[in-house]
């Protein structure tokens, strides 16, 4: 029997992709690698998945482990079982906090990926690796000023935070293994927001900080934005597009060896994004020019400013992000499996409505 290993369960991607993968591979058994602190939550998530689809019940094992540990913290019996037959790996676990300490980001994102690749190599040398499905990010581009193509990686870019930098270094590890012959697909989502139809999401971060600032106002909403915001693209995609894209391409031979930019082909500008949020909320928008450096300093150092804006200073750099993402090859590839990225105009309404209806959801993400 073949096995499918998931890291990052029960996070959003893992919880979404695990049942779809089991349905795609009816003879496979899933193994979800879970940190001890998330084991209870993982059991709850798995119970919910199996209630929703009894046909896949009993085909998933929850295994305690840690990607930051050599060998992923797996005992010999579990490792032997994974390597006993064909193995597919979904490496989804990562630290997503833009303000994370550098040593934590490096340990999880880079060393964790290196340990997963080591297991993938062992599988390739044994009964066989079907494919390593690795979720990276578009922001391996750093702050490259220009058009960033799917196959770009090393182009002299600089990085504004440890998340982008360590995800870049982690992708280098995966790309090196791919170039040496390992079967790999790399997926690079841009900023992921709620479902395109329901708006549902597990957390409010990124552009939701902008949205909450607008929705705390009435009538005319003031929005401080950097100069040139009308010329800066903000690339955001709905979560169902990301899940649909990965799920479809994971079983598609044409995606093997490819890097896939799961980004919006026609992203709105920062100003247009704010205008659309205001329109959906019935507000008149008035933008106020403000240097991002000054705004970040105020949030971090001026008493009361951080509490007033409720926007982490680390997110402000994305309002001046200079990179544009080419999705030409990805759009063609996704069309072959029947997946299309909804336009921002199609999903902004559900995004705003879900945010307004669920003020209890926070910004914390699971590692």
Q: Structural class, from secondary structure content?
A: alpha/beta
Helix count equals 12
Stated plainly, the CATH topology of the largest domain is called Rossmann fold
CATH architectural name of the largest domain: 3-Layer(aba) Sandwich
Number of domains: 2
Shape: globular
The whole-angstrom Rg is: 21 Å
- Uncertain runs with pLDDT below 50, 5 residues or more? none
Total strand segments:
13
The fourth-level CATH homologous superfamily of the largest domain is NAD(P)-binding Rossmann-like Domain
Q: What is the rounded distance between the termini?
A: 30 Å
Topology as a string of helices (H) and strands (E): EHEHEHEHEEHEEHEEHEHEHHEHH
CATH class of the largest domain: Alpha Beta
Describe the protein in words:
There is one protein chain. With 367 residues, the chain is α/β, with parallel strands linked by helices. It has two domains: 3-192 and 236-262, Rossmann fold (3-Layer(aba) Sandwich), CATH 3.40.50.720; 194-235 and 267-323 and 343-357, no CATH class. The protein is 40% helix and 17% strand. It is built from twelve helices and 13 strands. Strands 3-2-1-4-5-7-11 form a seven-stranded parallel beta sheet, sandwiched between helices. It has a two-stranded parallel ribbon with strand order 6-13. A two-stranded parallel ribbon has the order 8-10. Strand 1 (3-7), helix 1 (12-24) and strand 2 form a beta-alpha-beta unit. Helix 1 runs parallel beside helix 7 and helix 6 (207-215) crosses helix 8 (270-281). It is globular and about 65 Å long.
């Amino acid at each position: 029997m073949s096995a499918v290993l998931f890291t990052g369960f029960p996070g959003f991607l893992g919880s979404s992709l695990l049942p779809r993968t089991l349905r795609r591979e009816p003879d496979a058994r899933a193994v979800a690698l879970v940190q001890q602190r998330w084991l209870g939550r993982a059991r709850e998530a798995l119970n919910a998945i199996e209630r929703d689809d009894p046909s896949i019940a009993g085909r998933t094992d929850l295994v305690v482990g840690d990607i930051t540990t050599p060998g992923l913290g797996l005992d010999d019996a579990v490792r032997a079982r994974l390597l006993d037959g064909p193995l597919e790996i979904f490496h989804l676990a990562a630290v997503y906090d833009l303000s994370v300490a550098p040593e934590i980001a490096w340990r999880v994102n880079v060393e964790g990926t290196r340990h997963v690749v080591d297991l993938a190599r062992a599988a390739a040398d044994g009964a066989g690796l079907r494919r390593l499905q690795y979720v990276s990010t578009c922001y391996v581009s750093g702050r490259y000023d220009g058009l960033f193509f799917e196959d770009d990686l090393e182009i002299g870019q600089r990085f504004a935070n440890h998340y982008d930098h360590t995800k870049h270094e982690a992708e280098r590890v995966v790309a090196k293994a791919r170039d040496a012959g390992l079967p790999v697909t790399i997926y690079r989502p841009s900023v992921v927001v709620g479902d395109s139809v329901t708006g549902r999401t597990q957390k409010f971060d990124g552009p939701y900080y902008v949205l909450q600032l607008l929705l705390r106002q009435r009538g005319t909403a003031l929005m401080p934005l950097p100069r040139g915001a009308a010329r800066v693209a903000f690339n955001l995609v709905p979560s169902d597009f990301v899940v649909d894209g990965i799920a479809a391409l994971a079983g598609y031979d044409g995606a093997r060896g490819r890097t896939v930019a799961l980004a919006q082909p026609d992203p709105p500008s920062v100003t247009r994004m704010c205008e659309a949020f205001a329109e959906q909320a019935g507000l008149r928008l008035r933008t106020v020019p403000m240097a991002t450096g000054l705004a970040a300093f105020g949030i971090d150092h001026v008493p009361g400013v951080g509490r007033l804006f409720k926007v982490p200073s680390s997110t402000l750099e994305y309002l001046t992000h200079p990179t544009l993402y080419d999705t030409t090859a990805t759009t063609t590839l996704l069309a072959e499996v029947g997946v299309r990225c909804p336009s921002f105009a199609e999903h902004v309404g559900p995004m705003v409505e879900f945010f307004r209806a669920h003020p209890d959801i926070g910004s914390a993400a699971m590692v």
